TrEMBL record:
PROSITE patterns, sorted: ZF_UBR
Keyword tRNA processing: no
Organism of origin: Rotaria sordida
One Gene Ontology MF term: ubiquitin protein ligase activity
PANTHER family assigned: E3 UBIQUITIN-PROTEIN LIGASE UBR7, E3 UBIQUITIN-PROTEIN LIGASE UBR7-RELATED
Zinc finger (UBR-type): 44-115
SUPFAM superfamilies membership: FYVE/PHD zinc finger
Top-rank taxon: Eukaryota
Keyword Zinc-finger: yes
Signal peptide: none
Any one cellular-component term (Gene Ontology): cytoplasm
Keywords: Metal-binding, Zinc, Zinc-finger
Protein name per its UniProtKB record: UBR-type domain-containing protein
Length: 365
């Protein structure tokens, strides 16, 4: 049962059990997203000392930024140095060094790493640092237009974000499957026109064709661009299926081209956002509830530790039985139900304490 029952102002607010379970699942998904994004972050240490970090979550402080001096800051500085400011989340960017406290933000000293070079000359900025996204140049979330529900997709080269309806081409699959593909926006395909030969937008992995802008050595028979006779020259946003980096031509001439265009790092498997999230999730294991509980129990005696673990397991079982019973009966879950559940659990706990012998912590059994 998933429908919401309407109530009057005088009635007690109610929610179906199915809705509660759905909300819990949504919160768990959001937690997984946060872990995948921020699992690599140390919120107490500025990343400046790491140089131009290969990939990290970045933020733009709209309170401190101005259109002439764009800046980006790491997660730790957003948390410590720009508290109570208007800070925009930029997701992740590659090869960026934290700007907090340099000459662009001289009025806002960095509390975590005060001594920094005046400028990070290798940092690259786009409209995202102004709070502007897509070809429509809208802010996100957009407070004026009802477009926020349209999913935004990041170009893997320029790292700008685009509304799916502004890509210039229809999505090649169901919209909920777009997260399994990477895109290269039309502007970047125009800039690096040989990329159109790798378009997989219709579910077909195209064999690359020769690009007029690519000079291929005549004796290089292993070049994929040279071996294909397709003449696909239409410039548009392209979609790339999982594993596309392994399907790129890696001949000597193409590898040289990637170096000249500063694309080699982008075409490396380690640059994939999926790889970053995998590493972040692995490092965020200390956020797992089981590990937090285990750490909390370390200083308890053996007997107390068993008692706590027994209580946790009993609570999990009782809550699960309670929710399943409500879900199976299609009943709504009210505040009174929740109060009754915890009251009964507390009474049951008291009965167990009265009938169960709990030895002292120094017991040697």
């Amino acid at each position: 049962m998933s429908s919401i029952r309407t109530t009057t102002d005088e009635e007690e607010p109610i929610v179906t059990c199915s809705e509660l379970l759905e909300q819990i699942e949504d919160e768990e998904e959001e937690l997984d997203r946060e872990r995948a994004l921020y699992g690599n972050c140390d919120v107490d240490t500025c990343t400046y000392s790491q140089g131009y970090v290969r990939r990290q979550p970045l933020f733009a402080c709209m309170t401190c930024n101005n259109n002439d001096q764009l800046t980006g800051i790491c997660a730790a500085c957003a948390y410590h140095c720009h508290v109570n400011h208007e800070v925009n989340e930029l997701y992740t960017k590659r090869f960026f060094r934290c700007d907090c406290g340099n000459f662009k933000l001289s009025h806002q000293p960095c509390k975590l790493y005060p001594t920094k070079d005046p400028e990070n000359i290798l940092n690259k900025y786009n409209d995202n640092f102004r709070g502007i996204y897509c070809t429509c140049k809208c802010s996100y979330p957009n407070k004026e237009k009802k477009i926020n529900d349209d999913e935004m997709i990041q170009c893997i080269i320029c790292e700008d974000w685009f509304h799916s309806q502004h890509l210039g081409v229809p999505l090649p699959m169901e919209e909920n499957e777009i997260n399994q593909m990477d895109i290269i926006c039309q502007a970047c395909v125009t800039k690096y026109s040989f990329l159109v030969n790798y378009d997989e937008s219709r579910g077909v992995i195209l064999q690359p064709s020769i690009d007029n802008n690519v000079t291929v050595a005549s004796n290089n028979s292993s070049c994929l661009l040279l071996s294909n006779n397709n003449n696909n020259t239409e410039i548009h946003t392209i979609f790339l299926r999982e594993g596309w980096r392994k399907r790129l031509c890696r001949c000597v001439q193409c590898s040289k081209l990637y170096d000249e265009l500063n694309l080699t790092a982008i075409f490396d498997d380690d640059d994939a956002i999926q790889e970053y999230e995998k590493q972040a999730l692995a490092k965020s294991e200390n956020l797992d509830a089981d590990k937090i509980i285990a750490d909390s129990l370390e200083n308890l005696g053996y007997v107390r530790k068993l008692e706590v673990l027994h209580g946790i397991n009993e609570f999990k079982k009782s809550l699960g039985d309670f929710l399943r019973e409500k879900a199976n009966s299609d009943d709504v879950l009210t505040a009174e139900d929740v109060t009754t559940f915890f009251t009964n659990l507390k009474e049951k706990r008291k009965e167990q304490q009265q009938t169960t012998f709990i030895p002292p912590d120094n017991c040697k059994f």
